[in-house]
Design goal:
It is a single chain. With 469 residues, this protein is mainly alpha-helical. Helices cover 69% and strands 6% of the residues. It contains 16 helices and six strands. The strands form three sheets. A two-stranded antiparallel ribbon has the order 1-2. Strands 3-4 form a two-stranded antiparallel ribbon. It has a two-stranded antiparallel sheet with strand order 5-6. Strand 5 and strand 6 form a beta hairpin. Helix 1 runs parallel beside helix 15. The protein is globular, with a radius of gyration of 24 Å. The N and C termini lie far apart (63 Å).
Length: 469
Amino acid sequence: MELTPLLLSRLQFAFTISFHIIFPSFTMGLAAWLTVLEAMHIATGRAAYRVLFEFWLKIFGVAFGLGVVSGVVMAFQFGTNWSELSRMSGPIQGPLLSYETFTAFALEASFFGILLFGRSRVRPWFYLLSTAMVALGTTLSAFWIMVNNSWMQVPVGYVVENGIFVPNDWFAIVMNPVVWVRFSHMLLAAYITGAFCVAATGAWYVLRRTFSVESRIMLRMGLYLAAVLVPVQIFFGHLTGDYVHDHQPAKFAAIEGRWHDEQPAREVLFALPDSASESNAYEISIPVLGSVIASMSLDSKEVGLSDFPPQDRPSVIIPFFTFRIMVACGLVMLAIAQLGTYLCRKERIEQSRLLLYVTFLSFPLPFIATLTGWFTAEVGRQPWTVYGLLRTADAVTPFLTTRTAMLSLVVFCSVYAFIFAFGVFYIYRLLRAGPAGHLIVPSAATPNRPMSVVDVAVMPGARPAQAGE
């Protein structure tokens, strides 16, 4: 395979977006979890909710910072590697990204400081409001990003003037039904990620026989929430598949591993797609089920990839397998959440060490599902950057050289890998320290030393500060 500026730019963007999406998908769910904890502490006065809030706030602060840094740097690539995309779609994408700044970033910047340093300086109701506003800010950030990406997937509300996409109906762009399906799918993914991370942490502490009260709360609340949300997520996943079926038939055929028209269509469970022979090896399929899933019909005709010119087809291998990995993760999470919830209600969850270990080891599943779902959507969209309008090959910066693109890729990968390793290690130290059992208010916590909120948890031998110290 020849290394070209196009290929290297695609690899760079794939790497940076894969790195970045891990943190928003975690912090969106975690911000909502913090809001629930603070509300329950105010409503019940139970100290355990406050302890858990302070514990997860430290983790949220680190993950939020990593997400912001990786997101800001990632955006530079639109100018350096994808200048033609920026030039042609700037009148639409520029305002959408500005709306994210005016809404999401404004809320986060206004209330995040209060969340970190303002508990003793504001009334409890206002502190709860600040927590909710930070959660709303993370949600709005995801919303505007999904509006932007959904316009690239299904472009609407535009006209072409002098080779540039110009908006002529902002209502159609923002209220596109595709946006609301995909945004809901992403938001649910974030909440499920938070739920499983919380439940996995609780299971870990139960297995270690530490923080008994806090671990029970985390384990039960995480599993209960996941048991409700995962079935809803599966439903919205089906709705997302409907939009792909209607608007991106080539992507849908690639996901299904369908090379030729079929009526009724089979559902391919497993195969090794071969683009050269336009066939599948080692195929395992179920008759008729493909038509049922695609069109809710027993005899619908479903198109195959052979209906499209080779230059208009996406790579089949990646969306075919990433989609199945995503579905498999979803089904495993569904089983864990439902069984765990049942045992929680029977008060037998602590006795089932096997399920506790499975729950603890399940924390990567929502991240894997999010990443593979994103790979399915983005790789399946190829060879288009703006679907049906702008090819990826025409969106790259024209004067970009292979040497420059390679240097940029190496630098991005090195810096992001270092940040990721540091962030994961820091969060691990916080998780291993666990809830302090005291209300943590570090005396050194000041706005000019924001990381001081986590110093107590990660410094060896440090003593957690008592409330009021």
